[in-house]
Structure formats: structure tokens, C-alpha cells
């Protein structure tokens, strides 16, 4: 089983942390990161297949 907390932390450190200040200042979340979240499969974690 995948360690989801570690996976999320690694993702966050790589894609979100570098632009976190800009996200806070603008109050907007970059579409590119949102698309990457989808691509990585994080939404599947929240919604069971059945």
C-alpha cells in the first residue's frame, strides 16, 4: 500500500511549496498545479471506485 501522507508531502514540496507565497498573495491556485494533482491521481484517493 502506498504511503499517502509521504506521497502528498513529496508532491507538495515539489509543486506547491515553491509557489506558495505567490498563491497566498494572489489568492489564486495555478491551474497547472491543479492539473498535476489530477494527473497524479490524488482525486482517486478521495472517491472510491465503487
UniProtKB/TrEMBL annotation:
GO MF entries: flavin adenine dinucleotide binding; oxidoreductase activity, acting on the CH-CH group of donors
InterPro entries listed in its UniProt record: AcylCoA_DH/ox_N, AcylCoA_DH/ox_N_sf, AcylCoA_DH/oxidase_NM_dom_sf
Acyl-CoA dehydrogenase/oxidase N-terminal domain ranges (all copies): 6-50
Pfam annotation, one family: Acyl-CoA_dh_N
Stated name of the protein: Acyl-CoA dehydrogenase family protein
Organism: Parvimonas micra
Amino acid at each position: 500500500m502506498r504511503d499517502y501522507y509521504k506521497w502528498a508531502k513529496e508532491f507538495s514540496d515539489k509543486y506547491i511549496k515553491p509557489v506558495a507565497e505567490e498563491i497566498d498573495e494572489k489568492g489564486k491556485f495555478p491551474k497547472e498545479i491543479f492539473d498535476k494533482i489530477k494527473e497524479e491521481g490524488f482525486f482517486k484517493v478521495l472517491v472510491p471506485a465503487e
